[in-house]
Amino acid sequence: MDFTEPVVLVLTSLADGPKHGYALAKDIETFAGIKLGPGTLYGALSRLEDRGWIEALPAEDRRRPYQITAAGADSLATHLVIAQQVAATGLLRLDLRPAR
Amino acid sequence: MTRQHGVGELRLEPAPHDGSGRSAGPGRRPWPAGLLAVYPAGWRARYGGELELLISDLHDGGRNPVPMALDLLRGAAIAWLSIRRGSAMPERTRNALITVLWSWVGFAVTAAWFGHDLGIYPSRSAARQIALAHPAVPDAVNVLVAVGVVGLAVTAVAAVAFAFEAARYARKHQHNSTFGLMAVPPVVAVAWIAGLQVITNGSGTGGSVSTGRLTLELLWFLLGLAGIAGSTQAIAAIVARTEFSPTTWRIGAAAAAAISAAMLVGTGATIVWGLAIRSTQAHPGSAAGWLVVTAILSVTTARAVIALIGSRRHTATPDPAVA
Q1: Bigger pLDDT: B53 vs B140
Q2: How many Å apart are CA A41 and CA A30, to the nearest integer?
Q3: Chains A, B: CB pairs < 8 Å
Q4: What's the CA gap between B177 and B95, in Å, rounded?
Q5: SS3 call for A67
Q6: Which of B176, B193, B300, B321 would be B103's cystine partner, CB 3.0–4.6 Å?
């Protein structure tokens, strides 16, 4: 599965606990400054659920929370480590220090 | 960035309105939610309710509806493309089952109505002649009755499996309208049969009363057809909006295959039987009735078989995204 930006954002948001669609959108807006559209957000959720990286919890007032699975957490961790190495290398080559 | 909740703890951002699915502010569904109709039915059945709530929440939270609408169109296009590539959504199976259902209903109504004529035509003496000339050709009406029995039995078995899971899905996702749709076929059947009994028990003597009664019977017959169409549409709507398990889809596919096979046999028998009559009798009379029956049975059977083959081809095609 490709790690598209929405997929990474959703997995990252779910890494600290289950959330429903609106909570995900607000959280992503808070930590990444990105306003994910509803179609993009649910496209990512459906792909992640198909892949088994997230799972749906029982709905509450018709709002269904999702939580990251162990496989999803492993995949996210692997991706973020690589992304961190790429970011560090890029910043070094640009003669910039990684932000602390 | 602040983290307010720990790992594993359910963190639910308060939504701008209550959980009724309706916006508490303007009190109506925001217009971009109408674009959910362009998503594939299976996708909509699984995520439509949640996505509609999210659209309402974002709208009430001040999100611009135009970019939301464009994003939904893009999301719908991706959802359709993922189906073409063979995603987990059994969209073609779902559409094939709905097509087979409609075809089967059309076939059964035709066979039940015109098959009655086939049963009384030709006369007994002519039927004996045909039987002697073509001993291997069965009476079309007997074959159609057998097809009807097999088809109804298979439909009943599949209906139980689908109804059970549709009810469970509706309860879980609070789709109360599904229960209303499930009630349509039995309510229509009971109301129609009760009305028919009233009509047939009604006394009628004299020309004017008989004419009125004939009109009423014709009207009731047409209402029966409308009821059958309405009940079929209700079942199709349930199949379109519910996410079924792979086992239930397999039951549906097996039932559709059995019904299509029975329809093929019934149509073939009707064609062969008609040809046998025309080759045996010197003056077989008008072929109009037989041609009409054969045409309707052939078209409905062809529709069912093509839909079934199409869905099976799709199932057999490996998903390039996974391969």
Answers
A1: B53
A2: 15
A3: 119
A4: 21
A5: strand
A6: B300
B25 CB contacts (<8 Å, ≥6 apart)?
B16, B17, B60
- Per-residue confidence in pLDDT tens, chain A, 100 aa: 566 789 999 999 999 999 999 999 999 999 999 999 999 999 999 989 888 899 988 887 778 899 999 999 999 999 999 999 999 999 989 987 765 5
Locate A29 and state its tokens: 């807006």
Here the ipTM equals 0.88
H helical segments located in chain B: 41-60, 65-84, 91-120, 124-133, 140-173, 176-201, 207-241, 246-280, 288-316
The residue behind tokens 């018709």 is A62
Query: Contact B75/A39, CB-based, under 8 Å?
Result: yes
**Considering only CB atoms, which chain B residues are within 8 Å of A22?**
13, 15-16, 53-54, 57-58, 61
Report, as an integer, the average pLDDT of B208-218: 76
Per-residue tokens: B71: 């994003």
Q: What is the CATH number assigned to the segment(s) A5-93? A: 1.10.10.10
Determine if the peptide bond prior to B67 is cis (ω within 30°). no
Residue B284 is classified by DSSP as: -
Q: Which of A3, A38, A39, A55 is nearest to B78 (CA)?
A: A39
Q: Among all chains, which residue has been given the structure tokens 């039932």?
A: B255
